[in-house]
Amino acid sequence: MSLRLKFNLILGLAMIVGIALASVFTYRFMQENAREEVLDRARIMLQSAIAVRGYTVGEIRPLLALQQKRKFLPQTVPAYSAHQYVAQLQKEYPEYSYREATLNPTNPADRATEWEADVVAWFRNHEEEKELIGQRDTPTGPSLYLARPIRITDPSCLTCHSTPAEAPPTMIDAYGTANGFGWKLNEIVGAQIVAVPMSLPLQRANETLIVVLGVLAAVFLLIFILLNILLNIVVINPIKQMSAKANEVSMGALDVEELEVGGSGEIATLGQSFNRMHRSLVNAVNMLDEAQS
Fold first, then answer.
1. CA-to-CA distance for 85 and 90, rounded, in angstroms?
2. Averaged pLDDT, 85-106
3. Greatest C-alpha distance within the chain
């Protein structure tokens, strides 16, 4: 087995092990990074929905107070405004889903499902917590969710949700008196939940991993080529020259020119030693010829 082949086998094995280890650590890092990116967008979506809810209560509802007496306008409901706003965002990010899951909502469509009710219950049992991140299995695969509590902090909200007697008649006409009442100030009544399939961060991690591994493989290939060129210039060619000279000397050609040696490395030292051996051999042969003559 040639020196070049041995060198390339060892170098190739080292590169394979290096790429494998880099793949494992890079994939984990990319997964976590993609997960955090998805959660950051979910946070922006939630914060935007909160801002829209506040804007609706503070500015839209007072402007439509007169019209509300004649006809119920869903535009005055914070949850409706938040859903409409997020619906526009979902055109750009269709993978994200948004829910304002409520235990006792006015609109039955907002009623919390079993797992959403568990999230609301968790916030009720951990009132100091402002955010919950979790993962759940769905029929379409694992799903990542980010939730924040819906707490009644504005007394004006109780106008529609304390008792049917205090609620606007137009709202009663629209939704009846069975749901959405009995809320209390500072009570957690629901949770804002943004969910996204885990396949999204995994897909982004895979795409990034492919790019990183492609670049890494290209760098390793370049290093492999450069090392082979360097090996050829520094080691292989000088050894071939010494081997050819040694072969000529061994065949009796003592008058061959000495090797041209430059530098101070191991190969140069070997070349210098070979030249000394050559000269010593020539001197020994000459002394033997003189003794015989």
1. 9
2. 88
3. 138
